[in-house]
Amino acid sequence: MKLPFLFLFPVFFTLSLRADPPKESDYYTITPIPAPAGEVIEGGGIELIPDGRVAVCTRRGQVWMIENAFGHPDKPAKWTLFAEYLHEPLGLAWRDGWLYVVQRPEVTRLRDEDGDGRADLFETVSDGWGVNGDYHEYAFGSQFDKEGNLWCALCLTGSFTAQSLYRGWVLRISHDGKLLPTASGVRSPGGVGFNAVGDVFYTDNQGAWNGSSSLKWIKPGSFQGNPNGNVYFPFAEGAAGKRPIDPPYTEEGSRMVKERANIPELVPPAVILPHAKVGNSPTGIVPDMSGGKFGPFAGQVFVGEQTHSKIHRIFLEKVNGLYQGAMFPFLEGFQSGNIGLRLSDDGALFTSGSNRGWGARGGMPYNFERVNWTGKVPFEIHEMRALPDGFELTFTQPVDKATAVDASFKMTAYTYIYQKAYGSPEVDQVTPQVTVTSTSDDGLSLQLKVEPLTKGHVHELHAEGLRTSAGGVGLLHPEAYYTLNEVPK
Predict the structure, then answer these.
(1) Do 340 and 394 have their domain in common?
(2) What does the alpha-carbon distance between residue 485 and residue 127 come to, in Å, rounded to a whole number?
(3) Domain residues for 416?
(4) What is the pLDDT of residues 278-300, one digit of tens each?
(5) Is residue 411 domain-shared with residue 345, that is, in the same domain?
(6) Alpha helix segments (H runs only) across 170-255
(7) Residue 46 lies in a domain
(8) In angstroms, rounded to a whole number, what is the distance separating the alpha carbons of residues 41 and 311?
(9) CA distance readout (Å), 400 to 385, 393, 405, 440
(10) Within a domain: 17
(11) Tens of pLDDT along 42-78?
């Protein structure tokens, strides 16, 4: 039976007022920058050139210079091949008119002497480590630190053994080529970079002695957990301290928090990225130094994700001398597996990557893309800080205090087996009781009491019940994953 118009109209009017829930693209846009016809841009490192060009090095051994990368598509990007025939470069840095490239066997610097847009001078800066052709012997490089050093993270041979010199190590290399072994215990890095104060971190992938992938602090002289590369301590000439004792090779394994007491050099992951939940292969690292031009997360760190074609956001703090902090989802939907990341001071984030060797959700074999902030502020957990009895959360917008109640929060906590075997399930699960103890007058922060608070565990928080005070909108990403290495005193 056909209903009269009078009955249809109220239904239509109600539906038309129902707002769509916020989505990531409301706040951050992803702009693909197409590669030249017939070229494959599997970007592993990205650098910003002082004249406004953007450089990207590819797994195929090329370096490209891109004009108008900041303005594309309004002003189409122009690609120029700057160099080729390099060995899978995975790091770029600019200094004094030279482009430094970290490739598998060495650090090389390139210069265009005659001004034709192509590099014609190639100089070896340092080649003080080994390479034997194994597929996994990657070498990742940073930009220059405050002292003028590049940091290079070297993957193990086959991700399990160290069959070439310094495989499984982090090295510092000065701009004039001096090599300084800095830390051991690396397994399979995906990138190396800085936080906002200039401390250095790398991403390591799940595998032997890595229960899950993570972001790790490279404290000079530290042991990062995988003992295979420790055979090269006799070559390090004391620069990286003394060789740590090996972790236990027992069938049942151990726990990182326990072995820290037995191995003084062992530095735990700063932020664990729970395997499969948030990603499988973390990669490049960039701090947000834009001063707010990239949104409300200035001073925090962004980390690429290859398999899930995402970018994570990470808040870091130092407690009792160790870094720890929380991982938050940030942005997904990239065309391929992100590897290289670079964020400009004026708020343009470039990423590039590949799906070769590991599939990527993006579905394309490679990508080069730019992320920009739209100017709208998402409702997000801004920071998650550890307290002696729980956590303090801050927000990008005021919360509705009527929703800042115990029922809005759920938490689980777990850790991973520290073992020679590949990866680990989540173990030692705890379900803490979460109580809201206070909310600030402005609604921009609240404190949670967590019982029990478990040292060494990832504390996975869900806050689906929170709403903004204006509009009643829920969190864009209601999940947070805090790695509690130390409980504040």
Answers:
(1) no
(2) 36
(3) 381-483
(4) 999 999 999 999 999 999 999 99
(5) no
(6) none
(7) yes
(8) 19
(9) 21, 14, 10, 11
(10) no
(11) 999 999 999 999 999 999 999 999 999 999 999 999 9
